[in-house]
Amino acid sequence: MLSVSPAVDPLEKQALEYLAAGKFRKARDAFKLLCKADRAKNLPRLIEANVGLVQEMLAKGQLSEAQQVVVYLKTIAPANVIQGLELQLAAQSGDAAQLLPNAVALLTVGAASLAPAEKLRWADQLVVAFAPVTAESPEAAQLAGEVRRIHEALDAIAAGQSERALEAVRPLSRDSVFSHWRMFVKGLAAFHGGQAEKAARCFAELPADSVPGRAREPYLLVVGKTEAGLRSWPENIIEVAGRLGAQPRWGRLLTRAQALWLAQRHVDSYKVLRDAVPDFPREGLDALGVLSDFYFNALFTLPEEAGYQCENFLLSIEEANRAKNPTELKMIRRVFSQLLAARLDSFTLRTKWESVLREHERTHGANPLLASLAYGWLGEVLGRARRPGLFGSGGKAPLRDAPGAIDALQKSIALDPANLAAPLRLCAVYEALKMNSERNRLLDSMTARFPYSKEVLVLAGAGCLDRQAYLKGLEYLEQALQVDRIDPAVPDLMVSGLERLARLHFQKSRVDEARATLARAEEFLIEQPENFLRNRWCHLARRGLLEQLHGDAAQSAALLAQARAASPFPAAFLLFAQTAWRSLAEHTKGNGPFEAELNAVAKENPGAARGLALARIHLFWRNVSDSRELINEENWLRHYLKRAAKNPCARDEARQLVELLEPHPAFSGEAMAFVSMVLKKDPADPLFRLYEDLLRPFRLRDPENDQNRLLAILDEATRRGDEKAVQLARELLADLNVPVPPKPDWDEDEDEEFDEDLPDSANFPLPPMLAEDAEMMKALVAMLAGMSDKEIRRARKTFPKDVPPEVFDVLVALATGRGPSLPLPAPSGDPNQMNLL
């Protein structure tokens, strides 16, 4: 026979749900009704609901309401429940007369039945009551003595007598209910004695739910042993931390400032302190100084939109001359010189940065070492290479402000001759400007001042090799090798210098000395495919060619055969050997011994991977060859790459090729072919869309449209997780705001003047054209008018091949005022109207 479970009373079910949810008042009312039906079953739950209600009221500070519920509970609850609640009421109200005896009774007679958390709670109540404990039994007397010792210790800490405090709590044992107070006193003594680590260890041992466990928070905050983080701190903790840090009455201000900061209202957070604290912001290691540094340094890490808001607020202060004090103005200019270094024109950047240095010197006195570092940073920023101009992406990148960089770096060196970074950077600027005499003089002084610096020895060695002072250069490089045997640049230069010296010996018929010199390079050879200086097969090829030109033909044939066998593939050997022959056989006529064979291998099926290796070989020789232009080899490689771009290849292979070729205008067409191949498969590929933009041969720049396009590409790159595209897009966005550098006082081509006699074709009359074309013409002419002669010559070379040269001549004539007037707009919609561009 099946048994049937009794139906659950809906009221009982609802009451239990109220009790589980902590809705004690509703649970109490429901269980009152249920007790009328079954008192024995529901009375314990009614008591539980009332106890929960009392504790809820105590937590809210509703003492009188809680006392009324306790009065009712006395009619239904057992004595031990009432006793516990009355103790809680006494503790909340501060009624020591009732609290202390009952707490003592609980910790002595009833200790065995108390949970550890309850023991902690009632022990803390005895201490924080700060009243003498009555002893009516030996156990109570011991308890009273321990409470008295803790009070004495706290009094001693307040009086600054740490030793007396430690002596007072020393008798307390580890199993005492007040042992955590003993540890708290030890932590306080260590804190006020300047022993931060020891204090932190003591505070770490305290139970988190005890009174000392809660009281330790501001101390840990001050000693930096708690994670402040993006969390909300109670005002009382911040206030205590401020007092401990000799900054009282900071609780309310910092609580407001922190709440605003966490709410992403960064400007309002700064204004709370700026408006309320007279000497904020200021410098120093105290709380005000640290807070000041925090607000200004946070600008480097804020999200983009929040950063813009803070920038606009602080810049408006500077522009309106509303700085609160000189320190605020200095901090604003310092931070924004660093933040906006790439966007400010060089004059503004220098002016603001030097005003920061002057204010610092006025406040703190002269500090040549700091000023040297500051001018070194300025010189580094002004000496950075900019992206080339509007006509293509290749060519030599101009420096942002070469005269300003030189001036700043020279000041840095004068202020601190021991600052090595400044002369190293100045050497790089001189080298970029081809100011060889100045660079060599600077290197001479650097080798005397820094005789054991690897960087200086390497620069000096490379400079001597360029001046064909091979023995002196190798001596410098050997010293650098003794300092650092890991840096690959040193053995690279060593091999380069040894091969140049061997070549000189061969040319002067000192064959044995030449071979001995080449033998010295053997120890530096490595099996690294992309290192064409120290790769073994490349070294064998150079040796074979030198023997062919100046030594023994049999040795030459053997060496070249070894090089051919060790090379990665035939075309690599042939291109390397043919190009090396052009460089080494400087005065030899003819096309070279490898040209016919090289042309033959070009007909093989080319691929991107081999094209990448061949491009690296060619670009290596373009960088090191000092005898002939490599036009034939360049044309061969361009032909090979054009054919390779018609064959399938992996995206990464195409990426590597484009990155390698993009800085070289001669190969822009070949690089664009690989870009087009990838975009044909994936038109939205963000990285290759950026490459397409960089390789575009000629177009008028429109900053607003360019920015919108780059932002769209950046969004797509972010969505795809393409970090390389994200980085490049951000760089190009930053470049949009880079100001045009001032024209230097010198010009490497100043002896070459632009042809004043323009061809007759430059004077043909311009017919009317469509309005939009006329506007484009005006913009293009205005751009050409702002160019130097040198820039116009470069523009002529990179002008689109499908545009007649006569068009360019007309544009130059218009820009220089030597041609016809600008065309008038034609009526729109004329189907017979010529479109010049």
Detailed description of the structure:
It is a single chain. The chain is an all-alpha fold. 66% of the residues lie in helices and 0% in strands. The termini are far apart.
Q: What oligomeric state is this?
A: single chain
Shape: elongated
Which structural class do the helices and strands define?
mainly alpha
User: What does the main sheet amount to?
Assistant: none
Mean pLDDT: 80
Give the termini distance in whole angstroms. 101 Å
The DSSP helix count reads: 42
CATH topology grouping of the domain at 10-187: Serine Threonine Protein Phosphatase 5, Tetratricopeptide repeat
Specify Rg, calculated over alpha carbons. 42 Å
Give the second-level CATH assignment, the architecture of the domain at 10-187.
Answer: Alpha Horseshoe
- Sequence stretches where pLDDT stays below 50 over 5 or more residues: 1-5, 389-395, 742-764, 824-837
Counting DSSP E segments of at least 2 residues, the number of strands comes to: 0
Mind telling me the CATH class of the domain at 10-187? Answer: Mainly Alpha
Beta strand %: under 5%
Helix content: 55-70%
